[in-house]
Amino acid sequence: MRESTADCWTIEASAGLRSPELFTLADRRGSNCFSAHIRPLLARFMPARSRCIPARRCSTWLLATGGYGNVFFLSTNAKGCNVTATFRAYKKGALFANPCYTQIHPTCIPVSGDHQSKLTLMSESLRNDGRVWVPKNPGDKRHPSEIPEGDRDYYLERKYPSYGNLAPRDISSRAAKQVCDEGRGIGPGGRGVYLDFADSINRLGKDKIEERYANLFEMYQRITGENAYEQPMRIYPAIHYTMGGLWVDYDLMSNIPGLFVIGEANFSDHGANRLGASALMQGSG
Ligand SMILES: Cc1cc2nc3c(=O)[nH]c(=O)nc-3n(C[C@H](O)[C@H](O)[C@H](O)COP(=O)(O)OP(=O)(O)OC[C@H]3O[C@@H](n4cnc5c(N)ncnc54)[C@H](O)[C@@H]3O)c2cc1C
User: Fold this and answer.
1) Which of 111, 135, 218, 258 is the most exposed place for a label (fewest CB within 10 A)?
2) From atom 45 of ligand 1, which residue's Cα is the shortest distance away?
3) Does residue 84's CB lie within 6 angstroms of at least one atom of ligand 1?
4) What does the pLDDT look like over 199-254, one tens digit per residue?
5) For this structure, is 169 an active site residue?
């Protein structure tokens, strides 16, 4: 890694020790830079009754605080990935690149009330055996088991016969939004489509489907209370990955000397399209 010419940073507690671990990183001149959540593990090493963490000198900071998906309110990310560190860095002059580049994942649990803190990602592998459909007619509120084949629209199979239910993520996501915009979405709020395993269960047997996806079906049932072996899953696209982020050079250093940014927090590698296995890519560089 490159040597930095930056001022050294100190870290100071700006809140009581017992609570919430929101601390402020300050430079030598005392101006605040970033906030950081200090994990309980780190808090253990702090002096008792003190509100300060002993100052540490260093020439390099590494920001690895994830993407900004939660600016869209709900995403597949945990709420702790809240983009505060990136925002603070930006306010201190770090450049931000490509904020419009966001990947949307088609196979997530839809919004069904105000109790969700994230839109849980189901696996893309489910589309190997699940068939995506919505009612043909807008406003059809019948239970899926009461909607006959003739009243169903397997829209991915219809529109993209060669890809079918395995159409790429952007195409599947857009198509789902389109049918919901037409008033044919299912579930609370009408922002959902069915992912139906009935045909695969009939063809391969429940045991085979269980062998392939039991963990996912169980997770789905815990979250929604619905048994996807007996009725179709409900899915909808959700914000999943942000390709934009803090600008970095080829050494992953931002334009603030000494501030390096790695992972989803930076903008590098992707452009408008997300490259696969990105979570591993920079770690192995
Ligand atoms: C369900 C799911 C499945 C995925 N599957 C794949 C996959 O198959 N392949 C793939 O390549 N990618 C996948 N991804 C994306 C990949 O996991 C992420 O892009 C990757 O984990 C990002 O790593 P990161 O270290 O940059 O950030 P994160 O893993 O998001 O970690 C950031 C950390 O920083 C913490 N943090 C945030 N702000 C602060 C702050 N101010 N102070 C202190 N800490 C802070 C957060 O709490 C978090 O722990 C998936 C993501 C999800 C959610």
Assistant:
1) 218
2) 65
3) yes
4) 999 999 999 999 999 999 999 999 999 999 999 999 999 999 999 999 999 999 99
5) yes
